[in-house]
Design goal:
- This protein is α/β, with parallel strands linked by helices.
- The protein folds into two domains: 5-352, Spore Coat Polysaccharide Biosynthesis Protein SpsA, Chain A (Alpha-Beta Complex), CATH 3.90.550.10; 359-462, Hexapeptide repeat proteins (UDP N-Acetylglucosamine Acyltransferase, domain 1, 3 Solenoid).
- 24% of the residues lie in helices and 25% in strands.
- The strands form nine sheets. It has an eight-stranded mixed sheet, with helices on both faces.
- Strand 13 (249-253) and strand 14 form a beta hairpin.
- The relative contact order is 0.14.
- The model has no long low-confidence stretch (mean pLDDT 94).
Amino acid sequence: MKQPESLKYWPAFVEKMLREGVSSAAIETFRYYYEKAVKGETGLLFDKELLPVRADEVQDAGQLHHYAVAGKKVLKNAVAIVLNGGLGTSMGLTGPKSLLTVKAGKTFLEIILQQAQQCGISLVLMNSFNTHQETLSAVSKIDPPNPPLMFVQNKFPKILQNGLAPAIWPKNPTLEWNPAGHGDIYTALYSSGLLDVLIDKGIVYAFVANSDNLGACMDEALLGYFSEEGLSFMMEVSDRTPLDMKGGHLARYKNGRLILREFAQCPKEELRAFKDINCYNFFNTNNLWINLTALKDYIQKNKTVRLQMILNSKTLDPRDEDSPKVYQIETAMGSAISLFENAAAVKVPRSRFFPIKKCNELLGIRSDCYLFSEGNRLIINQQRTLGNLKIRLDPRFYGKIDQLEARFKEGAPSLLDCESLTVIGDVCFEKNVKIVGSVIIENKNRTQAVIKAGTVIDSDLTL
């Protein structure tokens, strides 16, 4: 049968993926999304399709402490799955973000391994083709008592926007591919065989979180609630603030099913409504709970996990704006909440959500505002009496990790009594600097300014 004109490049995609050893399940999943793309579908979700979620529709984690006893009993049946596919390019990193030293001389990976060890649970890392080998090497050097299991998320070929053919880039063929997004976790778990391995070991409950969120760890009360209520899927959400306007928000389809809408899935003309935190007032922390038996049953029944498509427009080489424009097909793992009838959302405190995406957030985490609990979970210093710390650093001088560390060689200043810190221009901080209140530090000179050791700054400073 003749291939429809719109799918004339499909055989080339199949050949390309087979050469790379992409699994048949991933190829079939990619075909599902590619067909949508060639039909002109965008993956956008419109307001007319959605309903806001009311506060009384979401269980408050603060009311679930009595489930901790049940959670402790099923810890032996639980696993933590950590998403470890990111390179941290927004911070100027070129290797796995989890290998960045974050606090107290420890990397994300070292802290995550210690968390799992102290909780007494199994740990699984989902790596990407960009991070797998370096992570294997790092774990080998750390040599933990119970090494984590690992699997690699699938990769999808980039699609040329002009013609929808496979992207070709002989200068660097690795740039022809993109990770399939963390929504690929379900297909990759299944096709790697690891889903069966875990279930055969008696593991039923999976807690999933990002490697750069050190506030996320196994919680016995949430585990107990998830297991006792017989849920198949649960998303941890938190109240949206102005800082979360671009984060994926929780909503409902008009048929009642819960749904996650990401920023990239919002039509441009509806961005004002998307950002309305009083309308869509819960955001996804990307901390999820999955019943692995229910997931396996779903995949065996439906053959694949088909999530809402995210069609990202990029340049083929992210560092070359003149390189061809491509589409990257991705999915978000939280969107699986719409697949299960017995799915739920639970509102958790912000203390379970400390993501580190940019250098300003890293500086805050490295400061005395945050400490490690006995379980190696990152927590807010109890001596801090102020609200959320706000840090704005001039991207010209602090946008990349090497720039940040060159200007804070002696460590972060004390920010325990700081409400907000804004730094404009090139400023270097010596050791034991303390910031109090809301402070703007501006260097108007072309040469670097230096804040001397032991300085206390409690008002705006122009240098």
